[in-house]
Specification:
381 residues, seven-stranded mixed β-sheet, 15 helices, 11 strands, globular
Length: 381
């Protein structure tokens, strides 16, 4: 009996020594195509003899194996595919399948329907603060520019599923209220939401993808050209400009045009239409060293990934949701907290605040209020 216990103990130690490298090998092979979206990462537990003897290691190792077993992404996609085909079910939060398989995030539907409306008084006050901040910047030869990107619910209301109530004419929305008050102010403003909807039936190429949540790569190209023209006019400068060479049409939706499709973690999702990908060259130089900073939601990511900061905007940074700052050539953000917002802002010539309608319920992400308060404090001195 004693000999059997010793053998069993030795076998357990051997398994303990073998298991970690074996799991590493299997999971490194199986996870070649990682799952998309928010996936909980379970780190590999440290191999300590004391934890193994006390029993503390085993539950951690079980949790690690459950999250990292061989072929987990493939099995997850297989299960997701089964439930999608059989029941039309998506195993991902916040994504909605619309009519004809158009994909939405629910927040964009809520924005279109006015379900997230914060009220005219709040929006009017924010526009007042924008106006004040712009005036202070203009005193220093700088400018502020508001850009509204289109929202998928607003652009494709006809494919919103029937489970959502129909929009009633005259329903108040954050977008409509902002357009109303901005139009009555002197705040510099580009409304790509309205512009894109007007072009919807005449545009040669899709302005919004079927399985993506942002403007199409082609739509983004048009928007950036418009932003550059506006900045040139505001500052009286010439900036580099993209000159279109050709349009590549692709049945396979690429880049941001398939971001929601990727987030479904399915084996196969091909219910899309061909998308357009502009190929361009850049002419001109930023001789004036005009520096443009973007305070934006994810609608600026495509431009930033494409090198727009250095190519067009003088190396201006990307303040993502006013939480993290991203510098050209790096995708490691640094916190905004603790910075002197007035000093950092005035390092730039133009500040662009870019938002889709789904994020207008918290437009500016406190940046507007913080800048306003900083100028108010200066005036009080």
């Amino acid at each position: 009996m004693k000999g059997q216990k010793i053998k069993a103990w030795g076998f357990g130690v051997m398994l303990f020594g073998m298991s970690i490298p074996m799991i590493q090998h299997i999971t490194s092979f199986a996870n070649e195509k990682a799952l998309r979206g928010v996936v909980e990462v379970v780190p590999q537990p440290t191999c300590k003899w004391s934890d193994f003897i006390s029993g503390g290691f085993q539950p951690k190792f079980e949790e690690y194996m459950a999250a990292n077993f061989g072929f987990r992404p493939e099995f997850t996609r297989l299960n997701n595919q089964r439930e999608y085909w059989l029941y039309g079910k998506l195993n991902v939060n916040g994504i909605v399948i619309g009519k004809q398989n158009y994909l939405y995030e629910q927040s964009y539907i809520d924005a279109y329907l006015g379900n997230d409306f914060v009220g005219d008084s709040i929006i009017q006050e924010k526009v007042r603060k924008l106006q004040y901040a712009q005036e202070k910047l203009q005193e220093k030869g700088k400018n502020l520019l508001v850009v509204f990107a289109p929202g998928k619910g607003s652009f494709y209301p006809e494919y919103i599923p029937n489970e959502f109530s129909k929009k009633v004419a005259g329903t108040a929305t954050n977008y409509d209220s902002y357009v109303n008050f901005l139009s009555k102010s002197d705040v510099n403003f580009i409304d790509c939401n309205s512009w894109f909807r007007k072009m919807k039936s005449t545009s040669k190429y899709p302005l919004y993808p079927k399985a993506g949540i942002h403007w199409s790569v082609y739509g983004e190209y048009l928007a950036q050209d418009s932003i550059l023209k506006k900045i040139e006019k505001l500052q009286g400068v010439e900036l580099p400009r993209p000159i279109l060479d050709e349009i590549e049409l692709s049945v396979e939706n690429k880049d941001g045009d398939f971001d929601l499709g990727e987030a479904l973690n399915l084996i196969h999702y091909s219910n899309t239409f061909p998308m357009a990908y502009p190929k361009y060259h850049v002419v001109g130089k930023n001789k004036s060293n005009t520096k443009v900073m973007f305070v934006s939601d994810s609608f600026y990511w495509g431009m930033f990934y494409d090198g727009a900061s250095n190519t067009f905007y003088g190396g201006g940074n990307f303040w993502y949701y006013n939480k993290e700052i991203f510098h050209e050539g790096s995708f490691d953000g640094t916190p905004v907290d603790g910075l002197n917002i007035k000093v950092e802002t005035e390092k730039n010539n133009v500040i662009v605040i870019l938002s889709t309608d789904a994020n207008l319920k918290n437009f500016g992400w406190e940046y507007i209020e913080e800048l306003y308060n900083a100028y108010q404090k200066d005036q009080a001195k």
